[in-house]
Amino acid sequence: MRVGLFVTCLIDLMRPEIGFSVIKLIEGAGFEVVVPPAQTCCGQPAYNSGERRLARDLAEKTLREFEQFDYVVVPSGSCGGMIRAHYGDLFGDDPELMNRFGRLRAKVFELTDFLVNVAKVRLQPGEFAAQVTYHDSCSGLRELGVKTQPRELLAQVGVAVTEMKGCEHCCGFGGTFAVKYGDISTAIVDEKCANIAATGAGTVVLGDLGCMLNIEGRLRRNGDSTTRVLHIAQVLAGDV
């Protein structure tokens, strides 16, 4: 079966190695992976900023590019949440688009949700044996129900998770929120960094590159040059 990979802007532009880890995992589960070359943004920044016309244009573009696939996999809770939870709002006045979106929506999965509930993978223990803590991204958790799936997969590869205080609390990124409300964002991520440090784990794992860049950036600015911040795809694929 064919999987369309919505690779996300941040992964494409800033951490393409994560995309290759995602492909390795999906192909390892027995699926053909296709990355539509013309894909761009899911429309979330425009949508969150009130630019509905632009957001709808991008949503229609995404719909055209991905409706052909058996499944659509997104290695980001925020982009996956935008597609599944908010495209219906943008298409609400167009019955044809709503029907097409309804068919697409049923095929869209966040990466770990896909691996657990669709592919039903059984991963082999790897060589990464470090103690980790896990950050639950807001959109993945609250819009897509991603909570147990990443922890189940980490257990499969032999990685133990030490839960941090406030693991479900926002990291302060929130896309354009971090730009508009920098002081508030900084206070939130400082609390997140303190909670990570309190676990004693040398690595924080997560499933959204926006959170990953925000947390890693603040750790480094605060003088922490050793705590690793990894996307879960990298850990599961053994690319660390």
From TrEMBL:
Domain Cysteine-rich, chain residue ranges per copy: 3-84, 132-215
Organism of provenance: Paraburkholderia sejongensis
InterPro entries with a match to the protein in the record: Cys_rich_dom
Domain of life: Bacteria
Protein name, as recorded: (Fe-S)-binding protein
